Amino acid sequence: MAELKLTNVEKAYGEVKVLKNINLDIKTGELIVFVGPSGCGKSTLLRMIAGLERITGGDFSIDGVRMNDVPPAQRGIAMVFQSYALYPHMTVRDNMSFALKIAKKSQADIDAAVAKAARILQLEPYLDRLPKALSGGQRQRVAIGRSIVRDPKVYLFDEPLSNLDAALRVATRIEIAQLKESMPNSTMIYVTHDQVEAMTLASRIVVLAGGGISQVGSPLTLYERPQNEFVAQFIGSPAMNLLPGEVVETGSVTTVKLANGGMARSAVPTLAADKGLKVNIGVRPEDMVGTEGEAIFKGEVEITEALGEVTLLYFKRQGDAAQVVAKLPGIHADLRRKLVSLTAVPEKVHLFANGTSLLYR
Amino acid sequence: MEQAFLALLTIVIGVGGCVGYFWLSNIVLDKAIFPVGGPNANRNITRANAVRPWLFLLPAVLALGLYLAYPVFATAWLSLNRNEAGELVFVGFDNYRQMLGEDKFWESLRNNAIWLIVVPAMATAFGLLAAQLTDRIRWGNIAKSMIFMPMAISFVGASVIWKLIYDTREAGQTQIGILNAIWLKFDGGAGSFLLLRVLPALILLAGAAAILWVVWGQVRALSDGGTMAKALRVLGIVVGAWLAYVAVSWGFGAATAQLPYGQPQFWLQIPFWNNFFLMAVLIWLQTGFAMVILSAALRGVPEDTIEAAIIDGANPFQIFFKIKVPQIMGTIVVVWTTITITVLKVFDIVRAMSGGQQETQVLANYMYDKLFVAVDWGVGSASAMVILLLVTPILVWNVYNARKEMR
Q1: Using N-to-C axis directions, what is the helix angle for A107-120 and A92-102, rounded to 10°?
Q2: pTM for the full predicted model
């Protein structure tokens, strides 16, 4: 049982504030994922929650108890490091029991906790091995086991899968999801730069950018109703296409005349006063469909990437506009060098003014 | 001026000679013996590459053979002969028998054993302590340079410095030796009681307790491991128990001894204890070496294992002894054995400070006395062989560990 509350938390190195105005409520049993581009401070925020970095402003509490100055071991947290951080001179068993020995638990309790964790993680055959005799995935499981034996209120994961190869990453991701499933009352915070991990694992995603929180929400909220252009382009791959234009018709359906000559209709409602507003429309590549009629975008296909289930079309840049990408189902390798017209249904067309979605104003 | 010119010329000839050797031998190999080109070009290149390392190593191997390997065998031969009016007469093991009958030899052996236990242990411990303590503080680098600086002083120079520290003037005169100056401040009052009786007794008892704790750990672990490991453990237990006994009896002695307050002491003439005053010099010299190596090793300990230990609830002592030290154990062993070898060869300090008098004789100085003072080649060589015999296993162990560290 653990509720975390961050109120106006900030982190400054000298004069430079790398994180500011972090407000976040995390409920018991949630799996929160911090994502963001490198250098956005997601790992720093996690380390502040762990107590490895000092919190230079604001309050952080677990279950209503202020934790700013509580040493890491007494916060009821456990952390899994990107590099596993196993103690190289200790066997798997000693690695997992170290924290309990430090806490002066009885040998019987320690043995029981280690045996249970080893069973959950299928580490029983390896208990007497040194970490160097284990594979990457096994090391990662030991690192998780080291957290489990402490029975913490909050689990912290710092990019735990980034040192694994692709196949193992998928397998371990599913293991973590199952682990979460088996411990519905423990709260987890997970840092990653991989949006697949974020989308599949998270109950809520926190997108960090520019030293603050860009948006907090469930994975599909972030995907379907991004609050700003940054989140819109950060979630989803390839990134959402943004095309500049001007509102020409308002109402429950908004019509935008685009700078490239196309016309777009969006289900985002607008007020009469918005007529003439400069906006960016956003359309995800997978929402683009070919059309014979009125098009949002018309251009020559420069490169195609046929992946089998889908084909990615990269269009020739028009002037200094961003490259437009479309993702069509099926195989369309024959479209290279062809002129293609694309549109999207109004429900899939997002509207942004000054970087912020018109849904959230 | 002329000498400087000669020195410069020697350097130029020496370096030029080396470069010339590599250049010319390379040309000879590639052009004359295995020419690159012709029908056998491929085979010739392979062969030339197989020969090249040996060719380049040749001068070094020859020089080492001439100046290291040959003397070993010559010394071994000399130790089996007696020099009678310039003639070598084979006498078998007579020299060894004579040496074993001398009290001075057994005194050297005993003193070497004490040096061997005390100096590497103290230098490594102080070095580790200094490395850890200077790592995190802002003026740590200045402190490190100060601790490292003695490394730049020769053993004889250090001996002269410490002779001044141990210097003795008559009572009533100003003591220029700092140790006597401090000693004369003690008057037998409460301060003296605390600092000269209680404190040393406590330190020795704590030392004994630490040794016994390690011994107890070995006793408990006696059941695991093979025969070899068991034998080593039993040996360790016996040595440890003896060391603990010595520490306790010394602690008792420190608490009860009658101390001559108010009289300047001739430190280097106090039998048995003067050895420790000599050892202090080498500890002072070697601590810097241990600190530099161990400091680098400590910095190599992955930061996230330390952070993981912090989250696991370890306090700074536990992090140091259970996370950091085990991870640098290989380096500690290398430092320890390296200092051990230096200690086995210790000569200059004893020669310069006491000349081996007043029960301070060590093997290397014993050898010097026999070989160059008494001009007894036979016994001198025999003692040299004893030193070689003692150094070799430690050297092998040291090289083995150093190579393991590098892997």
Answers
A1: 130
A2: 0.78
